[in-house]
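stage 2 :: seqdesign
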């Protein structure tokens, strides 16, 4: 290798020093400018706070969660799959939290390392918002159930229902059964192509069994389902909601079908 390691080291240090600056904030805090930014262009808020015993605290002063709360329900970050990932991030990056404030206590000599460690942690926490946008399969079902219970109430919903009058009913699960005005509502969540195909088969079996029901099909992203699979599902029947993000459409279509009693 012909690279000059010392020269590379000097170049790297000069570039990183240019990206990280410390400015007085007030009598108790110093603000650290870093190359870390939220998706909307706002910089991360990272501060230095002097602590007893020669220790300094790197802290976001609760700004990260406040910033994310503008467009997200941050309570969900502590629930279900998101909650597990949230706790894993804190454990992996060795950051502490106090009521939404993320911080690391560090000696001065480890300051640089821990600035980037805190920045890495805040970036991973920020990335939890992509679970809302991409809606990974695991969180899709959690979100579907939460929204369903919000609209009709948990006591009116039977989860993992089987139509026992059909042969081999246990091979054809129905995500949710809700009492409808004129017939039971069978609700299916569809996060991917495989579930779309399975739902088509279940609906066809129900129709062949002369089952009396109405169906409601909730997609994570209807546009991600191949056209042929979507066409077969449509032929099998069922009113569709293109995305779980369409909360008004979900509520309107479901309430129109359910038994008010």
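stage 2 :: out
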């Amino acid at each position: 290798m012909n690279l000059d390691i010392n020269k590379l080291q000097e170049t790297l240090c000069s570039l990183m020093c240019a990206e990280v600056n410390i400015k007085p904030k007030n009598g108790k805090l110093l603000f650290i400018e870093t190359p870390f930014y939220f998706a909307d262009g706002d910089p991360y808020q990272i501060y230095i706070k002097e602590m007893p015993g020669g220790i300094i605290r790197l802290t976001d002063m609760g700004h990260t969660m406040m910033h994310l709360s503008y467009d997200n329900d941050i309570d969900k970050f502590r629930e279900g799959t998101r909650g597990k990932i949230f706790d894993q991030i804190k454990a992996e990056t060795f950051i502490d939290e106090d009521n939404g404030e993320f911080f690391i206590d560090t000696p001065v000599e480890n300051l640089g390392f821990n600035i980037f460690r805190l920045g890495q942690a805040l970036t991973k926490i920020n990335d939890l918002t992509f679970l809302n946008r991409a809606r990974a399969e695991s969180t899709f079902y959690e979100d579907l159930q939460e929204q369903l219970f919000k609209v009709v109430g948990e006591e009116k919903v039977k989860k993992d229902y089987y139509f026992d009058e059909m042969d081999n009913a246990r091979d054809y699960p129905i995500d949710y059964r809700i009492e409808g005005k004129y017939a039971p509502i069978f609700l299916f969540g569809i996060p991917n192509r495989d579930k779309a195909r399975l739902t088509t088969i279940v609906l066809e079996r129900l129709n062949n069994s002369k089952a009396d029901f109405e169906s409601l099909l909730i997609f994570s992203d209807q546009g991600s389902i191949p056209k042929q699979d979507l066409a077969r599902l449509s032929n099998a029947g069922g009113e569709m909601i293109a995305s779980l993000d369409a909360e008004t459409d979900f509520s309107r279509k479901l309430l129109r079908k359910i038994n008010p009693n």
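stage 3 :: structure notes
- The longest strand covers residues 101-106.
- The chain has nine helices and eleven strands.
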